[in-house]
Amino acid sequence: MGPLVPEVIGNELNFIVAIFIGIAFGFILEQAGFSTSKKLVGLFYGYDFTVLRVFFTAGVTAMIGVIAFDHWGLLDMSLVYVNPTFLWSAIVGGLIMGLGFVIGGFCPGTSICAAAIGKIDAMIFIAGSFIGVLIFAEGYPLFEHLYMSESWGNVKVFESLGMSQSLFAFLLTIIAVGAFWVTTFVEKKVNGIINPELNHKKLYYSLTAIAVVIAISAFALPDRKENLLKNVNDEKYVASNEVKLMTSDELAFRIIDDDKNIQIFDLRLKKDFDSLSLPKSNNYTLESLFEKDANKFLSLKNKKNIFIADDEQTARKGAVLAMKLGFTDIYVLKGGMEEFKRDILYFRLISEGTTQSEKDTFRFRTKASKVLPELIQKNKEKQKSGGDNKPKRVVGGC
Amino acid sequence: MNEKKFMNPYLAGFFLGLILLATIYITGRGLGASGAVKSVYTAVVESVFPGYTSNALYYQEYGKEHPGNPLKNWLVFEVIGVVIGAFISGLISNRLKFKLEYSPKSTLKVRVTGALIGGLLFGFGAQLGRGCTSGAALSGMAVLSTGGLITMAAIFGGAYLFAYFFRKMWI
Questions:
Q1: How far apart are the first and last CA of chain A?
Q2: Are the beta carbons of A21 and A98 closer than 8 angstroms?
Q3: Coil, helix or strand for A12?
Q4: Are strands A85-86 and A151-153 parallel, antiparallel or unpaired?
């Protein structure tokens, strides 16, 4: 599951990856003709719409790819950098960049690309951008208020607009394809420019059709995550899936025995988990089972994955969800933490019973009720010093 | 030998989209450019005026976000790659040449001044807007960031808005 950094690809190797990604990026920008200012500003004077075509095709391709990867569970979007929204600095900064675009004829990425093939105007542009950064850095106290105002956090545009992700992706794709046709028409009829490579009408009709089909399929693919969550919140659905149960006694025994092959997924509230958590357990919610952290542990081989919650039913939800996500060796704590607390942690029984098995149980539970609280306390201290090692969102942006 | 033709824009866009998708899948972040200028600038200031950077607010905030050597930054490495990639592309398409391009209706002086001021404005605007056409607009669109799309609209909207006043520089 992506992102591959930092687990699969280490932070140092990531720098090497950056160089290769940069090479591909620079190569494509130059091949597309972004190394000449005349072609770039053509967009704003209506004589060359290359920038629009490349930019929108790239944006829509990547957007659909990200949505699809997220849908198939290949990418944990909670770890991907989403540019934060600061309304006023985004607008004012953007307008200043627009002004810089028509005066300078480049943007930062294209200027680097153009300078690499010897464009002197691009080198001057880069020198200018250093001065721009200098002014911002030295005058920062003056701009800080504008820079920080109207902070909306890492919001997504479809949330801001109050629509579904599928609908927004569909609309954006349609707008992009529409813009391609209109601008080609403008180039041809208004300016009399015929771009020879854009003359294969049939090809472009079919490409448009493909784009529309892909855009519509965004609706056909119902949100997998929402669907699964809806399913497991339905009692009948959960009951129709058979899950393996583990008794409080077995779980207690495995913890005391320091069994290396168990890992516990605790679905209780964060505050309950913080006040009392079993060794080898981590706190999750139904939602966070979709994320990379849970994915990493659940996909470990030869581990018994035990789901616990206050009641058995909630733990069953998590277990069924994990099974539907394709994981195996899933167990549910029978009777939930309530029974575990009653029978093990706070075990108080006067009579030791009559049959041999009742006597054994009594002895084990009496011992466990002494040993386990100590283990829990030790584990708590260890966790405090170990700190929180859940993966964090990547810091990106410019 | 003549310069080779540019790539079909839709094909180039499709490839660029795949590169961006791969970048997000591998690293969890998007592409960028202006951030590298900021890192290089900060590194220069740190080495020329050591001590100064720990006092000024901007560098403190930068240090908080990017601990360690400012040059050891993902975007700096990516931009080194961009230079190499663009150079290779120019080489195989016969476009490597020192050249200062400007419209026949404009003058050298106007173009040089324009490039410098344009770069200055873009560099400043990209700091204020938290990213440029690559880092905010394109990468922001891929992850459907509200801020990224607002910045994109403002960059292109602004360029159309101001284009009329600078038309003599280009057409």
A1: 25
A2: no
A3: helix
A4: antiparallel
B24/chain A closest Cα distance in angstroms: 7
Single pTM value for the model: 0.86
Q: Which residues contact A32 (CB under 8 A, 6 or more apart)?
A: A50, A54, B6, B7, B9, B12, B13, B16
Chain B neighbors of A13, CB-CB under 8 A:
none
Residue B129, amino acid = G
CATH homologous superfamily of A230-386 equals Rhodanese-like domain (3.40.250.10)
Cβ contacts of A381 within 8 Å, gap of 6 or more: none
Distance CA A314, CA A147 (A): 45
How many CB atoms neighbour CB A120 within 10 A? 16
A26 in Cβ contact with B83 (< 8 Å): yes
Collapsing DSSP to helix, strand or coil, B99 comes out as: strand
A302: which 2 tokens? Answer: 């030869």
CA-based diameter of chain A, in Å?
100
Give one DSSP letter per residue of A63-75, joined into a string: HHHHHHHHHTTSB
| Residue A333, SS3 per DSSP | strand
Domain with CATH 3.40.250.10 in chain A: 230-386
- Choose among B87, B133, B145: nearest Cβ to A85: B145
C-alpha span between A31 and A71 (Å, rounded): 32
CA distance between the termini of chain B: 28
A11-15, A356-360, A384-388: least confidently modelled range: A384-388
> Which of B14, B59, B130 faces A83 most closely, judged by CB atoms?
B130
For an interface test with A, the pick among B127, B139, B160, B162 (most A C-beta atoms closer than 10 Å) comes out as B127
Q: What are the start-end ranges of the H helices in chain A? A: 11-31, 37-45, 50-71, 87-104, 108-116, 120-138, 140-148, 157-161, 165-185, 201-220, 224-232, 235-239, 248-256, 270-275, 292-298, 312-324, 336-340, 356-386
Average pLDDT, consecutive stretches of 10 residues, N- to C-terminus, chain B (171 residues)? 84 96 95 93 88 80 82 94 97 94 91 96 96 94 96 96 93 84
- The phi and psi torsions of A247 (rounded to 5 degrees) equal -80, 160
pLDDT attached to residue A382: 80
**A281-283 and A262-266 beta bridge pairing:** parallel
Q: Which of B52, B54, B78 to mutate to test the interface with A (most CBs of A within 10 A)?
A: B78
Q: Which residues of A touch B46 (CB under 8 A)?
A: none
- Quote the minimal CA–CA distance from B168 to chain A in Å: 11
Q: Phi and psi of A331, rounded to 5°?
A: -130, 155
Please report the pLDDT score of residue A386 as a whole number.
Answer: 59
